[in-house]
Amino acid sequence: MKSLIFLVLSVSLAYGARVFTQRNVHPLSDEMIDRINSIGTTWKAGRNFDEASLPYVKRLLGFKGSSLRKLQQVHHEINEELPESFDAREAWSNCTQIRTIRDQGNCGGCWAFSTVETMSDRICIASHGELQVSLSTQEMVTCGEPGGCEGGYLETSYDYYQTDGIVTGGLYHEGGCLPYTLPPCNHSVNEVLPICPKTYLPAPPCSRKCVAGYEKTFAEDKHYGQAPYTISSDPKQIMKEIMTNGPVTTGFTVYADFPSYKSGVYQKTTDDVLGGHAVKIIGWGTENGVDYWLVANSWNEYWGDKGFFKIRRGNDECGFEDNVITGLPKLS
Questions:
Q1: Whole-structure pTM value
Q2: Gene3D superfamilies, alphabetically (predicted)?
Q3: What per-residue confidence (pLDDT) applies to 67?
Q4: Which residues are catalytic?
């Protein structure tokens, strides 16, 4: 009888039935990890943060949802059968930024990171690899939204890209006009990075001047985008957009189990909400019969599956398919 119950539970989970962990379990505890792994869901949990890191984890969640402004919604005519799997890292293998995992540091700037990463990828894709740049998350976080480390809107960042433009800037002190100045820190339980600060650090002041020694002026280094647009929550529309123009940005609700993701296809196992987070979708596929989106996070490469994760596709898991926004670059 026990084996039959386990079989029914496993099959139900694979096809989306909800089995919730008990409420009020500490999100980063061994108890949470053990409960997730014990119910036989479609993903595996593990230690990414120590329990004392919960306030810090919540600070990383800077997606405020959608603004009140309506954007144009692009609709694709789909006359072909879409591929069962797609990975932008392979489709545009010469665009190295697509596979780069960035690090927010002690900052709730996911809204800026996810959009700037998407913009950088799309410049390379639209130019057929001739123009490879890493746009500046530093500029977006510090200039694109007041109090940028306290959260922001995806629409705001795309508007800034269109009207003000963005200069180049790499990872922590790594090249470009305005590289990121908030240091990477130990999001996960490793000894490679320094421990993240216990207190909140505000975003640095907005600077409109390139670092000393950079060969261009701030104005000369600007890259601009066209008007931003949304894609409907229809998975096929999102898939067509990705395979046509490149990765897209989305925001979703983060539940208490998500920080412990390690592998597999994530779907929530609890109703406890921690906040909102923004990420970059780079592809899709199917694993053990479960359709998924392939996603790049910005919590460094020591989190999750080397900085990436998969999340269930086709059921608007955690609102994942309901907040897709993107835009095209201006190349001339």
A1: 0.93
A2: Cysteine proteinases (3.90.70.10)
A3: 74
A4: 110, 277, 297
